[in-house]
Amino acid sequence: MNLPLLKEVLTDPDEFLSNGQLKSLALEMLELIPMEGIEGSVLDPEGIMEVVLRAAVGTTSINGVTTKTSDTPNRKTVMDWLHTLQKPAMLDAVNDILALVAMTVLDRGGSRTVCIDFMDNPFHGHPEDEDEFRRMQARDGTTKCHRYCTAFVIARGKPLTLAVEPVAGEDSKADAVERVLARVETYPFETKQILIDRAAFNGELIGVLRETAPPVFPVKTGKDSLRRKLSVNASYMTEETICEGKEHEQTYPLAVNVTYHNGDRGKSGVKRTGYAAYGLEDRTPRQVATVYNKRSRIEKSYEKFREARALTTTPSTTIRLFYVGVGFLLEQLWVVLQWAVLAAPQRGGRALPVEFTFGDAFLHGVEQVLDDELGWKEKYRTNGVGLPAGCDHGLA
Questions:
Q1: Which PANTHER family match (predicted)?
Q2: Dist. CA 191–CA 184, nearest whole Å
């Protein structure tokens, strides 16, 4: 894969980075995603990707773009093109582009701590296949969701997305993590440690993680023996067994970290947290907690991603996955640009530009350029009459 515009900007930037360049860089990435298109159509993928990009940066739908612009095809035409996306090829391309952009600012040697997470995208409507969605706690008026497994690495103080994989209804979490880690293994660095949430408290999943690197994650407290070990007033290290006597039995080092809420989130009193601390047996519980807390930064990445997610009610899981990939690609591009060409070099690191925000600067800048190019409608014909006669408008 080749990104000549991005390479030029990263290695030989102009004095200023314009909104037009931001749009061109974003479109350059999206055009690498293969799309067969409609045979005999006079359109080309760039025209379709411009509509998709405008929907993403405006957090709107394809219909919301095509009905408000004069120089774009109609919604049906755009969606017909998007339905020609092939899921395996599209997903491979998205992950390859994520890797290409990430490696522009990642050291190729050494080792890294990788963060694994599961993200739920609420689903409204009727799916093509009832097995395609997962269940979640009620959110946004639904308990249905499309679930995605993601891998991140913290670099330059920012989370970079390494890989994204969908979790279909029949997939186990272990299956999804195995696929994600297979993509991470293609990176030139070594994975020294994996941080994941309580979703890892599963014997089969722990086994998958340990094949790549020592995992660290908080434990669930449903087991009686575990509750007893957590009912203490001082931190200590011990060990515990999960799935005892079963196929996926795992014995893990347990770090019991005891702290005090001190009014945090309106809570007070003793706070006891247990961590499965593979590879950290020689650390104190507080040190284990400090290592795990680095993972909290990926929540910021999710917040940014959601600002660039196009809306849709299509039952196509391929198109929904494509929109998710576009959101992660745009967020990744922003992270790299702000660190590589906009941050001011200084002793001890780089000072990131506070004015180059993701939503108000990057996304809005791309949106402005596309509005001009796509002919965004700025006036609408009125009826010339107003309220009908006899209608009491109540205005003085």
A1: THIRD ORF IN TRANSPOSON ISC1160, TRANSPOSASE IS4-LIKE DOMAIN-CONTAINING PROTEIN
A2: 8
